[in-house]
């Protein structure tokens, strides 16, 4: 393994942050990119990356890493340093207010125009041409801010990968995944290895989050070129939600890291006996069917259903209690589905999203992700 230090644009004299990437194997074959805690206050991924690093170190010492594996054990040094009154604020950059996992730059049209004359009937050759041009365009893009330099660095490390895993967590949740619909045929095996209860599928959910910025180039190039050139879905990019924010234990992290290693071995990036594909413990559902539960009033929030419950439309999930009037407001599920995530705050403001139920049928339109 060798570590690479990537300095970010300095936001002020006397200050300099850097991103560190750990590189295993060697370039030239299949590539996996894994990053942790892009939302810097979501720590299960960081601990999983620690255990993954220990396992990859041992595998490399044994000569078993046959592909290229890039691990970014802490993907957001900006957010990691943001504290206000002892509260860690790692989701949004305090300077701009932007979500660290949104607004990744789009080089799709520029690259398509640049390489069209180099494409032909060989799909593998087309992938190689497009990857080289994409990486060059990403790294050459100008940046004006530290946040933009972070985004450019992360995309430069990941944009030519076959597999991209972005390790996050929810507030209180089951392990679940997000990926684009064209990635699901390859992601289904990952869902099995990780024991994911639900995978939420969308095609362009809005605001260009990191995982979609990595995978959407391929299906958009395929649409752009049509039948003229074969363009496969050459990147499977997945957001892995490692349960809830407080699920930071060695037992969970070591198991999750081992499951990722099993998947990478199954995909051929690590040598040895190919593990058996586990039975599925969940399914895939449309992100447009994942229904946010909002509180129409403010008050003390208490849940009457636990995550993991299968619920029916109309089932009561939580109560919001006005401490002054003693009024109790029931929050009900809007659909049949899996109650897979809820907030850890226990005072709800009016209009606050406090939970999510994954239904099986697409209902929502427009931007599908939360803030």
From TrEMBL:
Its cofactor is Zn(2+). Signal peptide: none annotated. SUPFAM superfamilies: Zn-dependent exopeptidases (SSF53187). The keyword Zinc applies. Gene3D superfamilies: Zn peptidases (3.40.630.10). Residues 29-264 form the Succinylglutamate desuccinylase/Aspartoacylase catalytic domain. This is Succinylglutamate desuccinylase/aspartoacylase family protein. It comes from Pelomonas baiyunensis. The lineage of its organism: Bacteria, Pseudomonadati, Pseudomonadota, Betaproteobacteria, Burkholderiales.
